[in-house]
Amino acid sequence: MKYKLLAASVLATLSTSALSATYQLTELGDFEAAKHTYVTDVSENGHIIGQANGLFNLPIDISYIDFTDNIIKSAYDTEVKRFENIDKEITFTLDDIENNDAVYTNADAHTFMVGFLSSRSEDFEYQKISSLIATSYNNGLITEQSLFDESSLDYDGLTRSVSNFYTGVAQDGTTVGWGSAAFDKVSFTPDGETDEETWFTREFIERGILISAGGVEVPLLPEFTEHGGTSKASDIVATDTGYIVVGNVSVSIPAERQTTITDNCDGLDEPVMACIELINSRNTRGVFNKTAVKWTLDSTYNVTSTELLGLALTPEEDEDRTPFNSIALAVNSNGIAVGSSDTRDIDNDNRIYSMPTYYKDGEVVDFINQQDDWEGGKAFAINDNDIIAGYATKRIEGSLRNKLFYHDINTNTTVFPEDYFISSSSYANDINNQGYIVGEGDVGDTASTRRSEAFIYKIGDDKITNLNNLLPCFDSDGETSFSYKMVEAKSINENNEVFGVATKTVEKLDSLGEVITDINGNIQYESVAVAVKLSPIANGEVENCKAPDAEFYERSSASFSWFGLLLLPLVGLRRVFRF
């Protein structure tokens, strides 16, 4: 659980207050710099952190690009054909980008360059860009937290070369997260050549960080630092003497990965770190062996101890190919951490790459019963009563599906509540001390119509309740259908206020932040993700709404651009930063 101290005022009776009341939805703020906003954590004292995605006006550095190169010429030819297929005339040339500042004034040109650079993500001779940033919310204002990004030497502002993940906040406003070092543009001359080349490299791939409410920044360093190492900070709890932070750190490199590095990354044909990055990106498990970790800090943010929490298995001597991994994703006031770990298949002793685990008193416990055909999952939250919430994975109706669960450490019992339907995938994201769980699950009858909708569940009830059923039927005019659809419930506090993500329809904006119109001048519209708070309405009544026509977010079309990949609502953001 992300709420370590009980609120001074708690709802006295919960059997009738939360699920029989409607909720009032409030947007947490407007952020003009990006399309989408999300919540990742909330403290019991009201500190809120999150993410924003789909930044407008991403900076593009063209100074090093050879516009006569076949790679970019071919990409432009493909873009021309795409425009032709949608009966539009392209509005820029490569010469316009190179010589006429089109990338700063023409949204089509800017979108093309964003897409081109995104398509070269494994080519470290091209600029790296990212549209995902960390944010904090304060009385309707959303501000960016840059974490490890830096001011660019080539253009105004930050490099925008890194993704930053803001993951946990303590009740006093101290936060944790993780990100990568900013990419530097460096000159490199390959062995045997005389001409310098431009490359983009960084010092480390990922690093955890603590940031105090007053702005003190404390990098949380890995145990193994070769090639930068890795570390992630997932959650934080305040104690009487300081803080506990959990996450994971690199501890070594498997022998086979090390052989690959030794054989290929000699610094002759490319910078060593560019070679490391390529090996890391082309392997799902990356380069490093990683283990869950618990850092203890004093009240002045000094790290006083680092405890490696271990794995739910013991690696064999010949298991030196694929990296091992465990991570702690949340911690409660009792110091018990939860997350996931590699473990053993009870039938054949093969490795299972991620099973829900908890870390207590030096032990790593994977508690999901494999005999019931569960074969994966993660634990996302734990409350102060030592009840864990998360999801586990099994094959249902021929496909792998995820199912929410809660597990009581004290009684060693695991329950899988009934969710939306038998083959719906569902996730429990948080649990408060009163036993209320929030998350989201699939709705929709077929694979093509499935979408995510948020739920609330009280331990002991028969099934989950769709939070959209507890919202108003209409906007304030009493006629227009309610503008929001709750797609993810991320956090719940001791007042049963729920924080998460909703979608709403707004005017469609291009990559420069300007309104898009069709060929007839009509404004176009799109669905965006917004960070919201749901507040219980005392003595409210559930409204019986006529089911509106389903509104779906278009994930692909003939006109889909690479820029769209950066702007998709990250309802699955949990699965990005919580690994």
Outline of the structure:
By secondary structure, the protein is mainly β.
Report on this model:
This protein is mainly β. Helix content is 12%, strand content 37%. The protein is built from 8 helices and 31 strands. Strands 2-6-5-4-3 form a 5-stranded mixed sheet. A hairpin with a 4-residue loop joins strand 15 (289-298) and strand 16. The longest helix has 16 residues, at 70-85. It is globular. The two termini are 17 Å apart. Residues 1-21, 548-572 and 574-579 have low confidence and may be disordered.
Top keywords for this entry?
four-stranded antiparallel β-sheet, 579 residues, disordered C terminus, globular, 37% strand, mainly beta
Topology diagram in text:
Blueprint: E1 23-27, E2 29-30, E3 34-42, E4 48-55, H1 70-85, H2 94-99, H3 102-105, H4 107-119, E5 132-138, E6 140-145, E7 164-169, E8 175-179, E9 184-188, E10 197-201, E11 207-211, E12 217-220, E13 231-238, E14 242-252, H5 255-264, H6 272-281, E15 289-298, E16 303-310, E17 326-331, E18 337-344, E19 351-360, E20 363-366, E21 376-382, E22 387-396, E23 399-408, E24 413-415, E25 426-431, E26 436-443, E27 451-458, E28 465-466, E29 485-492, E30 498-507, E31 525-536, H7 562-567, H8 573-577
Parallel strand pairs: 2-6
Antiparallel strand pairs: 1-31, 3-4, 4-5, 5-6, 7-8, 8-11, 9-10, 11-12, 13-14, 14-15, 15-16, 17-18, 18-19, 19-20, 21-22, 22-23, 23-24, 25-26, 26-27, 27-28, 29-30, 30-31
